[in-house]
Design a protein that fits this description.
The protein has about 325 residues and is α/β, with parallel strands linked by helices. Helix content is about 45%, strand content about 15%. It has 15 helices and eleven strands. The strands form two sheets. An eight-stranded parallel barrel has the order 3-4-6-7-8-9-10-11, surrounded by seven helices. A hairpin with a 2-residue loop joins strand 1 and strand 2. The chain binds flavin mononucleotide.
Length: about 325
C-alpha cells in the first residue's frame, strides 16, 4: 500500500513537502524541516531577472542548498520564457526539481507580468513550461492558484496546459489571486485538478495539523501535500504529520525545551552560511515561540532583543 511518490524519476521518502516561502525558507529552516521529515524542500522564489546580474550572489542568497536538505525544488519566477529557461538550465545543476511560480500575487510581480499574471493569461503558460522542460534534464513542476477570482476559476484548464507542456507535477494552492492568503482554501478544486490530469498533484492551503493533512489527502485524492505557514517555527509538524499518516498516532506538540533545542540547531546551522540578517533570525525565534505556554510574553520580549544571546535567554 505504502508505495513512495515519484515525480518523474525522483522518488520521495515522504509526500509532505515544505512550501516555498520568501523570507522564511533560509538554509537552517529548510534543513530543520528536512530533518523533521519533509519529503521535498522548496526554495523561496528566485527572481530570474535578478539572476542575470551577479549569478554567484543570487545563488548564494537564494539557492544555497546543502546536501542534507535534498531533494530540493528551486522555484523560479519571471515573465519571459527564454530568460526563465536560461536561468533554469543554470540552476538545474544545483537542485533536483525546477518549480515555476504561477501563483505569486504580489503587485510587483504582476506588474512585471510574472506569477499570477499567467493565471489570467493561461495561453502564455505553455510556452514557459515547454521552454523550461526543453532546457533542463531534471523534472519541472509548476505551482498555480485556482483562478484570478471566484468568477474566473480556471485551474483545470491551467493544469491541463501545464501537463501538456511536459511538467512532471503540479501544485494547486486552493485560493484565487483575489483571496491572497485569506478565507478558507477551496480544496474541492484540488480534487477537480486531480481528476483532470495524470501527473502527481500536490495540494496546498490551510494544512495546519496531521488531521488536516489526512483530510486533504482523503477529500481531494491529491498525491502530496505542501505545508507553508503552519511549519514556520514548527518544523516538528512534519514529524507529527508523517507519524499520524503512517500509524494513526498523534504525537504531542513540542515542549518549550524541545523548541529551544530546535532553535539551537537552527543557530548551529546558521553558522554554515552566516549571512542572514539578525532581524531574520529574530523572526524565526518569534515563530519558534508561537504556540508555547507564555508564548505571547516571549514574543514581546524577543522583539526587544538586540542579540542572539538575549533571544536564547527567552527560551530558558
Ligand atoms: C511568508 C510567505 C512567503 C511565501 N512565498 C512564496 C514563494 O516564494 N513562492 C510561492 O510559490 N509561494 C509562496 N508563498 C505561498 C505558500 O507557498 C503557500 O502557497 C501558502 O502559504 C498557502 O499554504 P499554507 O496555507 O500551508 O500556508 C508564501 C507564503 C508566505 C506566508
Amino acid at each position: 500500500m505504502n508505495t513512495k511518490l515519484k515525480i518523474r524519476d525522483l522518488t520521495l521518502d515522504s509526500n509532505i513537502f515544505l512550501a516555498p516561502m520568501a523570507a522564511v525558507n533560509c538554509l537552517p529552516f529548510r534543513v530543520l524541516c528536512r530533518r523533521a521529515g519533509a519529503g521535498l524542500i522548496y526554495s523561496q522564489m528566485i527572481n530570474v531577472d535578478d539572476f542575470f546580474g551577479d549569478k554567484d550572489k543570487i545563488m548564494e542568497r537564494y539557492a544555497d542548498f546543502v546536501d542534507e536538505e535534498r531533494p530540493v525544488a528551486a522555484q523560479l519566477i519571471g515573465a519571459k520564457p527564454e530568460k526563465m529557461a536560461e536561468a533554469a538550465s543554470y540552476i538545474q545543476h544545483h537542485a533536483e526539481i525546477i518549480d515555476i511560480n504561477f501563483g505569486c500575487c504580489d503587485g510587483d510581480q504582476l506588474g512585471k507580468k510574472a506569477g499570477c499574471y499567467f493565471i489570467r493569461h493561461p495561453d502564455r503558460i505553455h510556452d514557459v513550461v515547454s521552454k523550461i522542460v526543453k532546457a533542463v534534464d531534471i523534472p519541472v513542476t509548476a505551482k498555480i492558484r485556482i483562478g484570478w477570482d471566484d468568477q474566473s476559476i480556471n485551474c483545470v484548464e491551467t493544469a491541463k496546459i501545464i501537463e501538456k507542456a511536459g511538467a512532471s507535477a503540479i501544485t494547486v494552492h486552493a485560493r484565487t489571486k483575489k483571496d491572497k492568503y485569506e478565507g478558507k482554501a477551496k480544496w474541492q478544486y484540488i480534487r477537480q485538478v486531480k481528476e483532470a490530469v495524470s501527473i502527481p498533484v500536490i495540494g496546498n492551503g490551510d494544512v495546519r495539523s496531521p488531521e488536516l493533512a489526512k483530510s486533504m489527502l482523503e477529500r481531494t485524492g491529491c498525491d502530496a501535500i505542501m505545508v507553508g505557514r503552519a511549519a514556520m517555527g514548527d518544523p516538528h509538524l512534519f514529524t507529527r504529520i508523517n507519524t499520524y499518516l503512517k500509524t494513526g498516532r498523534s504525537l504531542p506538540f513540542q515542549t518549550k525545551e524541545q523548541r529551544y533545542q530546535d532553535f539551537l540547531e537552527f543557530l548551529e546551522l546558521y553558522k554554515i552560511q552566516p549571512r542572514q540578517k539578525f532581524s531574520e533570525i529574530r523572526n524565526h525565534a518569534l515563530w519558534f515561540a508561537k504556540g508555547l505556554k507564555g508564548g505571547r510574553q516571549m514574543k514581546n520580549d524577543i522583539l526587544k532583543c538586540e542579540d542572539i544571546d538575549s533571544i536564547k535567554a527567552q527560551f530558558r
